[in-house]
Write a structure and sequence with these properties.
By secondary structure, this protein is of the alpha/beta class. The protein is built from eight helices and seven strands. The longest helix is centred in the C-terminal third of the chain and has 48 residues.
């Protein structure tokens, strides 16, 4: 066995010994969100986002790009496993900005062995043959990490299989400081503002809506109150008239004039 394989298996054996309650974790992520990020070895999604096993889905590829397969995973993450918020996280000093699609295709055409990076850029160090199959792959390279985040959010947001209600957040992880830096414009592009607006009205009208409704109902309430007052006054008059009739009849029998206005 190779040294790496031996180390991995030994580490796994130690991990399994203290696995305990993790055996009862549910298939659905407990915190109901997903992260699309780069495969770069300097990124630990669990540490940078405070995740434990079972908390969230983490989807990784070269560059953290919104490829067809990444979107496939995100759609499954929501549709079948209930995630409600998504993060797109790229990072500084990303290797995907160190070459172009044409560079990768030329390297693969010359050799399938590992290439090396020097002062003059990438070069093959191994022998051929290579393959031109790389010509048919979109390698999704980019020059600016923040711009690539916006491109990926835009693609995910506009995909016909992605619901409009899922907010998509965009960040660049700084490999020198460990901090997440929000990409300017990502909130608006990812629909976060629209979701916040809906959340404000969830379970009832917004305060502005309630105020407008109250304003519209004010004239009706005033009219209702006026009608009630008029009905009450009319009722009082009718009651007084009823009481006056027996008194008048009694006065007539006794020959006395009923009290009231002079004829």
């Amino acid at each position: 066995m190779s040294r790496i394989l031996t180390e991995v298996l030994a580490a796994n054996a130690a991990y399994a010994k203290s696995f305990g309650a993790k055996a009862n974790l549910q298939i659905q992520p407990a915190r109901r969100f997903a992260v699309l990020t780069c495969m770069d070895a300097r990124i630990d999604p669990a540490k940078l986002a405070g995740l434990a096993e079972g908390d969230a889905h983490v989807i990784r590829n070269a560059g953290g790009r919104a490829s067809d397969d990444a979107i496939r995973s995100l759609v499954i993450s929501h549709k079948l496993l209930g995630t409600l918020e998504w993060f797109v996280i790229h990072h500084t000093d990303c290797g995907m900005g160190m070459f172009t699609d044409d560079t990768m295709r030329a390297l693969l055409a010359g050799s399938l062995e590992a290439a090396a990076f020097g002062r003059d850029g990438w070069r093959n160090t191994g022998k051929g043959p290579g393959s031109t199959e790389g010509d048919f792959i979109d390698w999704l390279t980019f020059k600016d990490a923040a711009e690539a985040v916006l491109t990926d959010i835009r693609r995910i947001r506009s995909h016909p299989l992605v619901p409009a209600g899922i907010p998509i957040y965009g960040y660049v992880y700084d490999v020198r400081s460990g901090r997440l830096e929000e990409v300017r414009g990502a909130k608006a592009l990812g629909g976060v503002a629209r979701r916040s607006g809906r959340a404000a009205t969830k379970g009832g009208r917004s305060s502005a809506g309630r105020a407008a409704a109250a304003k519209r109902s004010a004239p009706a309430a005033t009219e209702k109150t006026g009608a009630a007052k008029r009905a009450a006054a009319s009722g009082k008059k009718a009651g007084a008239a009823k009481k006056a009739k027996p008194a008048a009849a009694s006065a007539k029998k006794s020959g006395a004039k009923p009290r009231g206005k002079a004829a």
